[in-house]
Design goal:
globular, 5 helices, alpha+beta
Length: 220
């Protein structure tokens, strides 16, 4: 199984697409900050980059106590959001897409694409243990209206498959009955769904257009 742009991990393991312009999303962050208790300050930097890798390199892993959000325009109506917390951890699919969808407001898509290394780790403990998960959330007005996920439960119970909400028009349901749970929603299925339903070319780095103007938001 191929995973999305591993040279850009960890920010490409969990991230968000938002159906809005980067400036509108940045304004949504400001709206959220104005409604939270205490002091919440966002430092905003506008910049252009030659390619996606160069843009992602602007996320600074040395910021051990800060959250960073990188907004990258694409060759579509969607903006890609890459997220970094505490210098290493990637995005938070449980809160970020819903929060952005509500405050922008705009449709949002949350993704998790984590390779499974449990079996390999058992054979070779030097291999980092990671439990596999392919997850898709479609969010509207801050609420998840479609969720599909195949995941290693990490509890000795093997793989689990979960769905919520009405299937999307271009969603392929034929493999949901596969005997192997891990095969019911695969990375290839996710890539196809993003392309056919939303016009998002996940694996094509030329689809991302950082040369049109990115926004880097740092929570300080």
């Amino acid at each position: 199984m191929t995973y999305f742009l591993p040279h850009l991990e960890p920010v490409t393991k969990e991230f968000t697409f938002v159906r809005a312009k980067p400036t509108d999303i940045a304004h949504g962050f400001s709206q959220f900050a104005s409604q939270t208790r205490g002091t919440s300050v966002w430092r905003t930097t506008h910049f252009k980059a030659a390619n996606l890798e160069s843009a992602v390199s602007r996320l600074d892993r040395s910021r051990r106590s800060q959250a960073e959000y990188l907004l990258v325009p694409t060759d579509s109506e969607w903006t890609a959001l890459f997220e970094l917390h505490c210098g290493w951890n990637g995005g938070d699919i449980n809160t970020t897409p819903a929060r952005i969808s509500y405050f922008t407001p705009a449709d949002a898509i949350g993704l998790i694409m984590a390779r499974d290394t449990e079996r390999a780790h058992r054979s070779d403990p030097t291999i980092e243990l990671q439990y596999g998960s392919i997850r898709f959330d479609f969010v509207r007005n801050g609420e998840v209206i479609r969720h599909v996920q195949a995941m290693n439960s990490a509890s000795g119970g093997g793989w689990e498959f979960h769905t919520f909400g009405e299937p999307l028009p271009k969603e392929n349901l034929s493999n949901f009955s596969n005997r192997e749970i891990a095969d019911r929603f695969t990375f290839d299925n996710l890539v196809e769904l993003l392309s056919s339903q939303f016009g998002i070319q996940l694996l094509d780095e030329s689809f991302y257009k950082p040369q049109l103007g990115c926004i880097l938001l740092i929570h300080v």
